[in-house]
Amino acid sequence: MPTPIDQQALKQLPDWTILDKKLHRVFVLDNFVQAFGFMAQAAIVAEKMNHHPEWSNVYKTVTVDLTTHSEGCITQLDSELAAKMDEIFNQMNNR
Q1: What strands, in cross-sheet order, belong to the sheet with 22-28?
Q2: Which of 34, 46, 74, 78 is a plausible cystine mate for 29, CB 3.0–4.6 Å?
Q3: Is position 52 within any domain?
């Protein structure tokens, strides 16, 4: 059973905020192909975790919201997926 996220876990995700009781981040990439590539890589990770984001893409912008629906809150699963999405984004942008 996933555990609710704590404040320490949130501190590890400085680019994420809480919006409507969900972890929220907007990723801006260089172009549509890069944004789509980011989503494809993140989708593979999410599928392996069996934990799927609420997200949308408009041109070079990917908006992501994470919550654990079965628990009705943000859990450690969400923070783990958020961290992995950050890693993908940073690798794509050579950070």
Answers
A1: 17-19, 22-28, 61-66, 54-58
A2: 34
A3: yes
Rounded to the nearest angstrom, the gap between the alpha carbon of residue 84 and the centroid of all alpha carbons in its chain is: 7
Tens digit of each residue's pLDDT (9 = 90 or more) over 11-67: 889 999 999 999 999 999 999 999 999 999 999 999 999 999 999 999 999 999 999
Structure tokens belonging to residue 9: 């876990």
Region of 94 (left: φ > 0; alpha: ψ -120 to 50; beta: rest) is: left
Name the domain count of the chain.
1
- Residue 95: CB atoms within 10 Å: 8
Amino acid at 93: N
Which residue is listed with tokens 């809150």?
73
Domain that holds residue 17: 7-92
